Amino acid sequence: MCLGYTKINTASYEVLKEGIKAIKLKHHSPTEIKWNKVSKSRIPLYFELIDFFFKQPIQFRCILVKYKERLDHEAFNKGDHDSFYYKLVYFLLKSATNPPDIFYRSYMDIKDTRGQERLAQIKKVFNSKYKGNSPFTHFQHIRSEENEFLQLTDMFIGAITYKSRKEHLKPGASEVKNQILNYLEGRSGYQLDEGTEPWEEKFNIFDHQPKAK
After folding, report:
1. Where are the alpha helices (DSSP H) in 64-113?
2. CA pair distance 117, 160, nearest whole angstrom
3. Which DSSP symbol is given to 212?
4. Where in the chain are the domains?
């Protein structure tokens, strides 16, 4: 399980968005980029997008949850997986790399029909944790096909979970995904199934491993 985001300054949004669109058009691939639909013919596109990320003022952070079978929702999450999800969102966004006195608008991929209910609960959690003074001032669901940064996030999360599940070592492993995985590890300098230093700002992976029961 992995939750993650890409973070950009509001003033840079349009320029960076158009930069990603230009790369996609250059490779004749204007459609949505999804990890589960990568193709061999688009490998140059994926590599150029990864290069663009590392050259531009874009940050990535995720929480990687290994060994989900160890999760004890009864003891720690009020018996509810959703409570665990809300905690993950809170700890994902409350990063040590966030500078003080900055306000954030959070746009989240729509996952199911419970979107409004989840947003209301997330807002409630942040309002409680920050005692009404949360720096996260706006939460909104959008569709990934409408946002270039959600698509970039999806590709990174896909590569991280792919490596963590040892899919790259299985017979018949995807050659395309293995190439993307290797390229991303080379550019980031990290093994994608391991955590990074907490203060890593560019490409941050929080490796969360529940204790064995």
Report:
1. 73-76, 81-93
2. 28
3. P
4. 2-208
